[in-house]
# Entry
Amino acid sequence: MKKCTIDDLTDISGKKILVRVDFNVPMQDGQISDDTRIKAALPTLRYLSGKGAKLILTSHLGQPKVPTPSLSLKPVSQRLSQLLNVPVSFSDDCVGESSKQAVAKLNNGDIVMLENVRFYSEETKNDSQFSAQLASLADIYVNDAFGAAHRAHASTVGVARYLPAYAGFLMKKELEFLDHSIQHPKRPFLAIIGGSKVSSKLAVLKHLLGKVDTLVIGGAMAYTFFKAKGYPVGKSLWEADQVEEAKAFLQEASNNSTRVILPVDHVVVETFSNEASQRVLPVDQIAELEIGVDVGPQTVALIQDEVKKAQTIFWNGPLGVFEMPAFAKGSFSVARALADSSAITIIGGGDSASAIAQAGLSDKMTHISTGGGASLEFMEGRILPGVAALKDR
# Structure
């Protein structure tokens, strides 16, 4: 780590520490449906609280434009209290007098959760005055929200202009796993990149050329590559404005040390329904009104063979419409192959992490990132604003 972490903090008893966590958890009927992100922050919170620091937690939830009761962090603070088995107080605002009063009541080791920081538009604008208000609550800033590290917002970047800024344990773990997988991987190094759009993944595909030994491309974005190869795609999802980019990528890949694998067969349907009748065809065959919804068994077997040979595997993006059980076979089969592998397995958050969780295999992976967008941008070689803002060693 080239950035300071909370390991570098000494004598913090009584210090007020503003901790940016990523508690942007899925909610259903007012209840948290998945508390993975809350659990991921527990090591940092237990460590700082155990050292006698006064913790002030800030996070976003959803994308509200104005204060929205259904996106309040109060249920999150209650769940956090249960997980930590200690009281966690709640402030109904993240700045202003009520937040100051909530902080003033803290004793050493206590924790308060501030209300959703995105209830203020100044958060996403990285407003300097709003940043200063947040920073005024604390003596030290800790960013443990890797999932928001690619956003230059007030609570991820702005506050670091006013407070000494450190990485929490989760941030440190995420960066070390992702950086090590790119810079010093055990080989063979396999990357599996799926998802729906080439436009959102092309940068990472280009960045991985020459860095990984084998690159598998799947999901709906494969159809833009099929179009670039002159194959019919029926009514499958593809991006007309990315076809030339896809052609250029395939040309570049043909002269590169990285072996690029596209699906060789696919599952197609006539109606986008879980009950639709399926056909398995070679990828250069599909009827005009059919839709590609999953990779076929030959492609799964091909990927499984690559998984068996690999020593490091990075996976970001599902290989089919995994949200529908009928079209999840490809993604789940690959998930099981990773679970059975002895390789270092790194899951790049987002839908791939959801697919792993739905398959019940999360505990079989070496590392599951809490940030889909952040992990993808990191793998593209981008500098994450929330990381750049931390103190250098």
Q: What stands out?
A: The CA atoms of residues 234 and 289 lie 5 Å apart.
